[in-house]
Amino acid sequence: MDTWVYKLDGVNYINLTNKCTCACTFCLRDHMDGVGGYGLWLEKEPTAEQVITILAGDQTDIVFCGYGEPTEKLEELLLIARFVKGYGGRVRLDTNGHGSAINGRDIVPALAPLTDEISISLNAPTAARYAELTRCRFPNGFSHMLDFAKKCVQCGIGTTLSVVDVLSDEEIEACRAIAEGLGARLRVRHCV
Ligand code: SF4
């Protein structure tokens, strides 16, 4: 049975897809089948209606954070987010920041009214290091991600950039300077 919605600390996490534009060297998908005891590989991606039906019976805050990049399923994401904002829930999106490149248009104006917080994977302080660590399918993935982050801050979404502690201390401080320069926070995640 596919896990489309899973609960951690009272918040429903939405697992829309396993598609991703990156193949990060530290991705936990390479050595785990899920998190929190939930298997997150999907045989079938959910429709927006299927997720909304689940949330209708359990009206919590939500996080789009599955085993893949949520903006690969932008239309579903926006429908679900609109439903959650309708009952007064908070919406967070965890993303690699490639949503505009994936969808071929600037998606931040569509996200902004429906997204309280966004966590964007910065991953590295330079384009070369980013390419090495993320093995992103976009040659200019680093600049796509930074441009997306800049627009999120400009549109007033609470924005956090994240790195994984596979970086050196010097690299993490360089990432902190990038985040602060954009007006965002930096979060350092532990590599599992
Ligand atoms: S962006 Fe996230 S889901 Fe995609 S490969 Fe990297 S760590 Fe894995």
Provide a quick synopsis of the model.
The chain is α/β, with parallel strands linked by helices and 192 residues long. Helix content is 35%, strand content 19%.
List the helices and strands and how they pair.
Elements: E1 5-8, E2 11-14, E3 34-35, E4 38-39, H1 48-56, E5 62-64, H2 74-86, E6 91-95, H3 99-103, H4 108-111, E7 117-121, H5 127-134, H6 141-154, E8 158-164, H7 169-182, E9 185-189
Parallel strand pairs: 2-5, 5-6, 6-7, 7-8, 8-9
Antiparallel strand pairs: 1-2, 3-4
Helix pairs in contact: 1-2
Structural features, described:
- By secondary structure, the protein is α/β, with parallel strands linked by helices.
- The chain has one domain: Alpha-Beta Barrel (TIM Barrel), CATH 3.20.20.70.
- It contains 7 helices and 9 strands; from the N terminus they run ββββαβαβααβααβαβ.
- It has helices at residues 48-56, 74-86, 99-103, 108-111, 127-134, 141-154, 169-182, and strands at 5-8, 11-14, 34-35, 38-39, 62-64, 91-95, 117-121, 158-164, 185-189.
- β3 and β4 (38-39) form a beta hairpin.
- α1 packs parallel to α2 (74-86).
- The radius of gyration is 16 Å and the shape is globular.
- The mean pLDDT is 97.
- The site of iron/sulfur cluster has 11 residues, from loops.
